[in-house]
Design brief:
mainly alpha, globular, 69% helix
């Protein structure tokens, strides 16, 4: 990844944020599947295609109902 970042010669946004968001979500026991898969691609060598497949075949959850309950 360092080689790719160096080759861009610009600020590559999201790399540090991905680490921070993953750590924050773990500390608060919040599931963030997209962030988790991005982390695995960036730092664990997971192939992007595999990450997308994992997200698209992920089991259904009740995330929105919980968010809606907090808003109303």
């Amino acid at each position: 990844m360092e080689e790719a970042v160096a080759g861009v010669r610009m600020v590559v946004e999201g790399i540090r944020t991905t680490k921070a968001a993953r750590k924050l979500s773990a500390g608060h026991t919040v599931e963030m599947p997209i962030t988790e898969q991005i982390f695995r691609v960036l730092f664990e060598g997971l192939q992007p295609e595999t990450a997308v497949l994992k997200l698209m075949t992920r089991g259904k959850t009740r995330e929105m109902e919980e968010v809606a309950a907090l808003c109303w």
